[in-house]
Amino acid sequence: MYKESQISNNIVEEPIGLFKNSLGIKPFLKWAGGKTQLLPYLHKFAPTHFNKYIEPFIGGGAMYFSLNAESSIISDSNPELVITYKQIRDNLDEVIEILSSFENTPEFYYDIRAKHSSDLADAFIAARLIYLNKTCFNGLYRVNKNGHFNVPYGKGNANFLNKEVLKDASEFLVNTEIILGDYLSVLKKKAENDDFIFLDPPYYPVGKNSDFKRYTKEFFYLEDQINLKNEFDRLVNLGCNVLLTNSDHEIILDLYSDYDIKIIETKRMISSNAKTRTGKDIIVIGGNRG
Fold first, then answer.
1. Among candidates 232, 280, 260, which has minimal Cα distance to 4?
2. Sheet with 176-180, side-by-side order of all strands
3. What whole-number distance in Å separates Cα of residue 90 and Cα of residue 71?
4. Which of 277, 244, 255, 279 is nearest to 41 (CA)?
5. pLDDT at position 149, please?
6. What is the CA radius of gyration of the chain?
7. Model-level pTM greater than 0.90?
8. b/e burial code for range 45-62 (CB count within 10 A of at least 16 → b)
9. Among 49, 57, 121, 222, which is most exposed with the fewest C-beta within 10 angstroms?
10. Who contacts 235 (Cβ-Cβ below 8 Å, separation ≥6)?
């Protein structure tokens, strides 16, 4: 069982604006399970000095964009997301040109949603993902078991083309290595002594509706959580500083019982039901944080 003495509780009442200085920028995507609220704690427990930064479940990249590390590797198993990051870095003008031709209407939205990435050029894939992310219901990126985006139109007036935010992201990504791949293969190839690794995997479900965080067609089962714990151990033994986020579930607490665990109460901005807009995230801390 987990050790009560190693667990502390903190509360985040509202999302916190964290881009008031030159340390980082605002992410260009809104992502289910995004870490903006947790950034004050993630920064608090992060190492002060490190070799390079690696984030293998990049999602919207709130932590990555807030750090401004000298050397970074980001990766994900979602092909469209990885293409989008690469296109924002390498081909921004064409992505903006395509986005400029889009319309924020239900008819246009469902026409764009129906397109499949296998039929599209990379710049269009990136523009499509950004457009859907900004105009869909609650900014929730979700795919079905066939890998098709299936979130309804948001019926709002979202600004899906913010050129300044995209330009900032493009400049930020210039010296970042972007990889499509499974987190285990990326970490085994790239992680070295004194690296800082941030792990933000699909959370262990705490209720019947917890699968909303799924943004690839693959699930993340208990066996995957155990494999992740084993990799966490390997990284710490390698000499890396590691932070991991997950749900406040007894199984996860037991898995990481040998490590320092912080429990953070957060708001769930993605939920349409006010009664489900609160939750608890955990931060697991491994390494010397030197």
1. 260
2. 7-11, 260-267, 278-286, 241-247, 196-199, 53-55, 72-76, 176-180
3. 17
4. 244
5. 87
6. 19
7. no
8. ebbeebbbbbbbbbbbbb
9. 49
10. 187, 191, 197, 242, 286, 287
| pLDDT tens-digit series, residues 120-172 | 999 999 999 999 999 998 877 777 777 788 899 997 777 899 999 999 999 99
Q: CA 190 → CA 9, 24, 36, 72, 78, distances in Å?
A: 33, 24, 26, 11, 19
27 φ/ψ angles, rounded to the nearest 5 degrees: -60, 150
Determine which of 3-7, 25-29, 148-152, 225-229 has the lowest per-residue pLDDT on average.
3-7
CA distance 136 to 150: 9
Element (H, E) at 11: strand 7-11
What string of DSSP letters covers 243-290?
EEEEE--HHHHHHTTTSEEEEEEEE-TT-SSGGGSEEEEEEEEES---
Contact 175, 71 (CB under 8 A): yes
Q: Which tokens sit at 156? A: 């709002």
Query: Cα-flanking dihedrals φ and ψ of residue 9, to 5°?
Result: -110, 140
Structure tokens at 29: 């995507």
Residue type, 264: I
3-class secondary-structure state, position 235: helix
Tens of pLDDT, residue by residue over 32-80, are 777 888 999 999 999 989 999 999 999 999 999 999 899 999 999 999 9
Is the four-CA dihedral 188, 244, 212, 134 of positive or negative sign? negative
- Let me know if 119 is exposed, middle or buried by CB neighbors in 10 A (0-12, 13-18, 19+): exposed
d(CA 203, CA 32): 11
